[in-house]
Amino acid sequence: MSTSVIRSGERFIDEKTRQILDQFQRDGYFDFGPILEEDEVEALRTDMQNKWDDPRMHEPAHDQIRGNSLMRMFEYSTAFRDLIIREPFAGLAEAILGDDCHCMSQNALYTPPNPKAVADGPGGWHLDDLVHFPLPTHIPRHDPDIPLPCFVMQIFTPLTDVEEVKYGPTQVIPGSHYAGRRPEEQDHPMFDGNKTYSFLTRKRHAYMFNNQMWHRGAPNASDRTRLMAGVTYSKRFVSQKFYPFIDYHMPDHIWTDASPRLQRMLGRHEKGAYG
């Protein structure tokens, strides 16, 4: 793979990192503001659009595109691959998940306008995969004074402006990672008095959230396609989600010029417990 325009970036200083981790633990998310440079956004957006426009990528046998999700972008794009270790994202993932964390998946989201959509309309609220710390129905929530570990976290970098709700921003319910259950209400759900927080952002910005947050991509009721890049990180013991899983083979070109840190993020771990 050729060298990409993705910068190495800079880690946040320790004090800033502690502040972010405190908010992330309390609220379940953090909004970075501007991080990427214009040429980084353009490279990611170009590679994403090229993959979407390639008819071969839509063939089910290749498992490259499912619905609006472009799968395993690191296979297709050096820019997306290098985004995995860009700072401050990778450093925060390691601070939250451990120094041996890895990229669990890397899917980009391509959301065309929906002429039938209603801005901020109901539906789509979920949390990803399993409820990690489920509660019985008679217990309303986890104790906020007992921090819950984060096993999986998502970082998104919008490649188009999403500055109004009609453009279909990512939305979360603050604190809902303490709910211990999936959201039942699909029209403006609330948790512990907290209402929807919309990531109203511009391209170059970024944000992250715990995958146990109640969240969704709001309906795209605009005339603009929403493009989202990102990385899903997890603790090492959470398996990587690269289909067809045990039969998945990392393409050889992925390793070209990959640093030891990037190789570990892609799953080339040192020996550990159980193997």
Structure at a glance:
Helices cover 20% and strands 17% of the residues. It has helices at 14-27, 38-53, 73-76, 78-83, 89-97, 260-265; strands at residues 29-34, 65-66, 69-70, 102-105, 108-111, 152-158, 170-172, 197-198, 205-210, 215-217, 226-234.
Largest sheet, strands/sense/barrel: 8 strands, antiparallel
CATH second-level architecture: Sandwich
Mass-distribution shape? globular
Looking at the structure, the CATH topology is: Jelly Rolls
Q: What is the secondary structure topology, with strand pairs?
A:
Layout lengths: L13 H14 L1 E6 L3 H16 L11 E2 L2 E2 L2 H4 L1 H6 L5 H9 L4 E4 L2 E4 L40 E7 L11 E3 L24 E2 L6 E6 L4 E3 L8 E9 L25 H6 L10
Antiparallel strand pairs: 1-9, 2-3, 3-5, 4-11, 5-11, 6-9, 6-11, 7-8, 7-10
Question: What would you say this structure looks like, in words?
Answer:
This protein is an alpha+beta fold. Helices cover 20% and strands 17% of the residues. Strands 1, 2, 3, 4, 5, 6, 9 and 11 form an eight-stranded antiparallel sheet that branches. The longest helix is centred in the N-terminal third of the chain and has 16 residues, at 38-53.
Overview features:
275 residues; Jelly Rolls; eight-stranded antiparallel β-sheet; three-stranded antiparallel β-sheet; 11 strands
